[in-house]
Write a structure and sequence with these properties.
The protein is mainly α. The protein is built from 4 helices and 2 strands. A hairpin with an 8-residue loop joins strand 1 and strand 2. Helix 1 packs across helix 2 and helix 1 runs parallel beside helix 4. It is globular, with a radius of gyration of 17 Å. It starts with a helix and ends in a 12-residue tail after the last strand. The mean pLDDT is 80.
Length: 102
């Protein structure tokens, strides 16, 4: 994977995260940058134009984090369908433990 492909992958993962959580994409980009040890996305891209590029391990860790957030694997839903008193229980959001790279 080329360095440019890695940045495109990170941006795509941020977009998926934003759609899954209902946050603006710029917030998701900043979150990805923060997890990689940068204060915000613009700092990440600025340094990426110079000497820094994300490693394969960093891209894989971010991918695992986003997949954990966007996946329903391991969640349980308990739906009772009915009228106005219908009860819906379930856990959609879960905590994902993916290390940051500080």
């Amino acid at each position: 994977m080329t360095d440019n492909d890695k940045l495109k992958t990170l941006k795509l993962l941020a977009k998926r995260y934003a759609r899954a959580t209902g946050q603006p994409q710029h917030v998701a980009l900043d979150l990805i940058a923060t997890r990689l040890g940068f204060p915000h996305w613009n700092a990440l891209t600025g340094i990426a134009k110079g000497e820094w590029t994300p490693s394969e391990a960093q891209v894989t860790a971010i991918k695992a984090f986003v997949e954990c957030i966007t996946s329903y694997k391991g969640t349980t839903f308990d739906h009772v369908l009915g009228g106005a008193d219908a009860i819906t229980r379930g856990e959609v959001r879960k905590r994902c433990s993916v290390p940051t790279f500080l």
